[in-house]
Design a protein that fits this description.
By secondary structure, the protein is an alpha/beta fold. The protein contains 5 helices and 11 strands; from the N terminus they run βββββαββαβαβαβαβ. Helix content is 20%, strand content 33%.
Length: 245
């Protein structure tokens, strides 16, 4: 397989997900269907030739043809994320390359049960998996545990609620670590061993696990699940650092 070539995508749509998170729909002239969990590289080139490049997980399902969605958390000192948030408008052109990655991926044909654990914007590749699961008509048992700072930080809130009410073997569990509204019915602390046991327990020991988020979050969750008896070979992780966006 040859090298993946850069191409010029056009920005079809921009959606504000939260005060600091936006989703971008990119129209691709050379479209290749991705696997849920893969990512694209985005490259910016200044007039003086300086280049900045970052990788962003695909949020859309593989069934979405001709275009992809990426969801970007605005990092205050991030070269690429600040440009995407503050400068990019619908109709603009941007240089992209992908899809990339073959380890942190799930296909409906692999079945379940499935446990998805996301911290903050780490939910993005997991959302691609969820959207793929529903688009493919999969009935695999699936649970999502998502950790957020506050209720204002929840990405894809309405869509997750719809998935939760679908009656197709999916359940979403969420925790708010910093502040909770009075009517909050989810967890109200950092993800810990007890929380993971409560969410993952009904899925059994053969569960396929995907964890994505900040490095410390991912390592703690993976270690807890392994110590509880989940085979390490069934735990796949994707980490990002504070300057990864």
């Amino acid at each position: 397989m040859g090298a993946i070539e850069w191409q010029i995508a056009s920005v079809k749509k921009i959606r504000q997900e939260t005060p600091r998170v936006k989703s971008f729909t990119l129209d691709l002239p050379s479209f290749v269907s991705h696997k849920a969990g893969q990512h694209y590289d985005i490259r910016l080139t200044a007039a003086d030739g300086y280049r900045a490049q970052r990788s962003y997980s695909i949020a859309s399902a593989p069934e979405m043809m001709g275009e992809i969605d990426i969801t970007v958390d605005r990092i205050p000192d991030g070269e690429v994320s600040t440009y995407l948030h503050d400068v990019l408008v619908e109709g603009d052109l941007i240089e992209v390359r992908g899809p990339i990655g073959g380890y942190f991926v799930w296909e409906a044909a692999l079945g379940g049960p499935l446990l998805l654990v996301g911290g903050g914007s780490g939910i993005v590749p997991l959302m691609s998996m969820l959207r793929h699961r529903f688009a493919a008509g999969s009935q695999a048992d699936c649970r999502l545990l998502a950790s957020w700072r506050t209720i204002e930080d929840i990405i894809y809130s309405g869509e997750l609620d719809n998935f939760n009410q679908s009656g197709s073997g999916f359940q979403a569990f969420q925790t708010l670590t910093r502040a909770q509204p009075q009517d909050w019915k989810g967890y109200a602390r950092r993800v810990d061993t007890q929380m993971l046991a409560e969410v993952a327990g009904p899925l059994g020991k053969q569960v396929k696990v995907f964890i994505c988020g900040p490095t410390a979050f991912v390592e703690a969750a993976a270690d807890s699940l392994a110590e509880a008896g989940t085979p390490v070979a069934q735990i796949k992780t994707e980490r990002f650092g504070p300057t990864g966006n």
